[in-house]
Every structure is written in C-alpha cells, then in structure tokens.
Amino acid sequence: MTYKLIAIAALLGGATAANAGGIDRTGQSITALFEKGRYAEFSLGSVSPDTSGIGSGPPVRPFSPGAASGNMTDSFFTFGAAYKADLNDQLSYAIIYDQPYGADVSYPTGTGYFAQGSSAEFKSNALTGLLRYKFQNNFSVHGGLRIQTIEASATIPFITAVPGPGIVVPFAPYNVKGDRDTGVGYVLGVAYEKPEIALRVSLTYSSKIKYDVDTVENSALGAGIASTVRVETPQSVNLEFQTGVAKDTLVFGGVRWTDWTAFNIAPPGYATLTRGAKLLSYDDDVFTYTLGVGRRLSDTWSVAATVGYEKSNGGFASNLGPTDGNKSLALAAVYTRDKMKVTTGIRYINIGDAQTALGGIKASDFRDNNAVAIGVKVGYNF
Prior knowledge:
By secondary structure, this protein is mostly beta strands. The protein has one domain (about 5-380): Porin (Beta Barrel), CATH 2.40.160. Helix content is about 5%, strand content about 60%. It has 2 helices and 23 strands. The chain has a 14-stranded antiparallel barrel. About 45% of the residues are buried. Mean pLDDT is about 90; it is low at about 1-15 and about 165-170.
C-alpha cells in the first residue's frame, strides 16, 4: 500500500460535499494538512436541491391546506482551496479556504402556499491556518485559527401584524438584513498514521465562533429598525479515518458532530411578531456518518464509492429549512498524472421528510425530496 493511494483517498470524500445537517455545506475537513510535501488544491461544486411540500392545517389563514409549495431551494455553487507545505521534517502548515455554511431559500409565488414569496440567504467564508507537529511514534498534533465571515437576509411575507394598538402598517411583510461580520475561532486535533498499511485516524475539534451582526428589520412594527444580533456558528468535532484492507484497496469514512442546538438567529422584531420565536434554530445536534471504499485500478485511475447518513430527529422543522436527516450515495473517479490529481464526483442525497408548523400547529408536509451534487477537485504536489 503506497502513500500515493492515501493521498488519493483523502480527496474522495470532499469532491461533492453538500451536507443537510443544519446549514452545513463542507464538513470543514482538514485532509489537505496530511498531504505529502508541498501541495495545493482547489475545488468547485454545484448542488441542485429539489425540496417541496404540501400545505396542511386548518382551513383558515394563514394556513393553506392542499397547496403545493413548489421547489423552495435554489441551486448553488461552492468553491474551496488549500495550500500545504513542510517547514522541516516534523513541522508543517496548511491554509484552507472554504464556505462552510450557507442557505438559499426562495418559495415561488402564485402557488397559494402560505409561505409563497418567502426567501432567505445565509453566506459564509472561512480561512483556516493550521500547524502540524509530527512525533516519532506516528502521532501528530495540529491546531490553528479560523477567521470566518457571515451575512444573512430574509423576507417572510406571512409574518405581518402584531396584536395591540399603534400598528401603522398592519399587513407590512417582514424582512431583515444582517450586515457581514467577522469572527475568530480555533481548531485543535490529534492524528495517528501508519503509512505501510495506509492507516490514518484524525480527531479535530472546531470551536464556535461569535458574531455581533448589525441588523435592520422592516415589518408592521416599523421600517428601518436597527439592532445588533448575537449569532454563534456551532462548535463541531470531526473523526476521520482510512486504512488499507487489501492491495490497492482502501476503506475510509468519518463521523461529524455539530452542536446545532446552540445555534440560532433571533432578531428582536421577529421575536415580537411571533411571540418569542426565533428566525432560525434547531432542536437537535447532528451526527453525520460517512463510509466509503476506494480502489486503485492503475497508476493513473482510481475509483471510490461512499454512503452517508444523518438521522431524522422528528418534531417540526423550520419553514426556512424543512428537512430532517438524509441518506446519500456518492461515486468518484481520480485521474493521476505525474504530480497532478483530478477528482470528479457525483452525489445523490435523499433528503429526510419533515413537517413545519405555524404557531405550534402543523402547517405542511415535505416528502420525497432530494438533491444532486457534482464536483471537481484539482490537486498538485510540487
């Protein structure tokens, strides 16, 4: 089993990353840090979700029983890049760019569905700098800093009036815009490697990152109401492994835990209009499991297949994120020539069924939804 195959396998899981847990999109893998010598990579991905539901609930406004929502998730693109180099035989570093969290929600109009015309967008960009120190006993430690930006906006027409006197525009639709803000977190981890059997196990902790987002809300409460909203992107733990099981054959996978119960976006005007509800929050943490097998066919070609799983937790999901768990299957091929590796892949995601609510009353059923992701990653060893 050669180190070359280890490097190939490290690419297979990330070529078509698109996670449904919370608003997780990349899984924040640090596999570039374990590449041999000096190395650079970039990746591009395209994800096309199809997420739609049917209204339920009582035959009174704002409920819309029997109305179809239409596809409420827009397609999106992702970009990532990394650079890794050795300082000496024991110390190396990596700089990794990714877009770890995101959401693109847009309910079509003219459907009669209660959330028609609603939209939401969440963007993030992260730059992670890591150092790795290798001990003589195959163990290593790694750690560093992550600088991350977020920005968000939403328009929700069915959130309109608030009880009580003094409402100037009683049916003004709710919208909110949060300016871009920057936060800093840290990353810590440990790894064990045994190159002669292509074994590597790594455990990486990423801290939560805090933001104070300058926010402007427009609603029945008034126009241009400014506030500062505290947002925290969640802490997480990644356990990633790979090992040779036969000549030119590798098994790899991982488990990712994300502390989504600690994440929420709660503008004060929205809370007033909805009697204390949050614009976006989650009731359960998420465990994401992946397992795959890679096979080197020749000096130039390798193939792999992976399966993924996230448990459905039940309960009501957000109207801005009506999913609950997922199952996925990914296929990838790697072409290697001299010092360059090109990985291409496709991933099919079966999105878990979910129900949404208005005021604690069931408002919709989302079933039989899916997404297709395609991606390409180019890596080069100097």
